[in-house]
Amino acid sequence: MALDRWIALIFLAICLAYGYAAFFTIDAGLPPFMQRNPVLPSTFPKALAVLGVLTSLVILLGLEKNEVVIKEGDIDYRNLGQYKIGQAAILLGLMVAYALLLRPAGFLLSTVGFLAIGSFLLGEKRWVAVMVTAVIAAGSIWYLVQEVLGIFLRPLPFFLG
């Protein structure tokens, strides 16, 4: 079986488990006055589960198959070794580290670090431009979330604030 069908099979299993939870367990604890509402907390998860199952079945049954012509710039899953998978894995690890450092390091420090290290990882060579852009972006987002929306975001590390 081809790689896309294996992935579709795994995706089907995940969507079926998610669909089971959406259809049978999410609404169990609702109070009686909410049980007759037209839109429930499980409405969107139910739609996602159904769409995911349908999409994976289309791929599993081969309904989307046309003659495969790989054009320049398209990803050829038969030659995955030619892509920078290590760089992508490091970037995913950087995202996890960003999420874990968000509270202890504060929003500004962790966001500037994530943007700067991510830019250098992806090949940017201009240190000054990267740092200026990262500081402006992180500061702007913090200001909008903290001051405009009124949602508290710890700007600095816990030992400084």
TrEMBL record:
The keyword Glycoprotein does not apply. Pfam families: TctB. Keywords: Membrane, Transmembrane, Transmembrane helix. The chain crosses the membrane at residues 45-63, 83-101, 107-123, 130-153. Residues 6-153 form the DUF1468 domain. Signal peptide: none annotated. The keyword Transmembrane applies. It comes from the Bacteria. This is DUF1468 domain-containing protein.
